[in-house]
Amino acid sequence: MEISSEHLINEFQKMIDDSQFDGPLKITFEAMHQGYPRENLCRFLKARDDNIAKAHTMLLDCLNWRIQNEIDDIMAKPIVPEHVYRAVRDSQLVGMSGYSKEGLPVLAVGVGLSTYDKASIHYYVQSHIQMNEYRDRVILPAATKKYNRHINTCVKILDMTGLKLSALNQIKILTVISTIDDLNYPEKTDTYYVVNAPYIFSACWKVVRPLLQERTRKRIQVLQGCGRDELLKIMDYASLPHFCRREGSGSSRHLWTEKDDNCFSLDNSFHQQLYNFVKKQGEPKERVAPVKQGSFHVDFPEPVLGDAKIAETIKSEFQKLGDQNGLLNGLGNLEINGH
């Protein structure tokens, strides 16, 4: 991440000091920056194109959101009962496969095969925020220690395997998650790599693209096939997600097999460690009172485009492709919802 000038950071810090940045705001800011306050000020400056006033407003909005929704305590609020947690994990495919050569954690997202249909939207939002917080509180500090330099961003690989027209039913929840990240976890992802994109991806992208912030769109790179050859330029083979090991024009000595680690699996070390971390964080409160059943509700913004506009855009894009490919069969049954 490019570092904003010292002058801008100093001015930003002065604005915070002048606004009596104390009490709950100070506490939650300390929880968020994890010992690197200036680097976090830099993130918000960059997210607002070095406009100090806008960065200050964005930071205050973020901190108030964290206070109002008790984000500092969300790691002590496990998704229970366990079968609901398993259902969320099986339908919201996320994992960690390793580190880039620069030490950035490599996070994988199974966009095409995630269904988001096993629980309410609140469970998926809770799950996503918990993974964000685990990344910021555990994964990134561990990477900083391992590579002996401050690491505050990650790389995300978006797997489009299995992407179908019906995936657009999840457009609302995907937009909510993206917006939460844009507003409250800015500048946390260095690059998004799209791999295994089927032919319908271009139409889906035209629907999703207007819902993303411009700075997010600029970081998205669509790679050919599983992207193995391109990704091996920035990471070792061992850090490739399992879905990036299947093909490529390079050496064939590494063949993908079913025995390779599936980073989406609950048996993967990332998910085991995350689950145990949340469980341990919740133990003190469990001794005082039982964990409340049900999802942990977090305020989230409505999508920029309304459901009707999204549906109209989807239909328009697929009309351009659908006649010759048979994609319009069943289009009339497509529903836009947030589950």
UniProtKB/TrEMBL annotation:
SUPFAM superfamilies: CRAL/TRIO domain, CRAL/TRIO N-terminal domain. InterPro entries: CRAL-TRIO_dom, CRAL-TRIO_dom_sf, CRAL/TRIO_N_dom, CRAL/TRIO_N_dom_sf. Pfam families: CRAL_TRIO (PF00650), CRAL_TRIO_N (PF03765). SMART domains: SEC14 (SM00516). It comes from the Eukaryota. Residues 81-241 form the CRAL-TRIO domain. This is CRAL-TRIO domain-containing protein. It comes from Daucus carota subsp. sativus (Carrot).
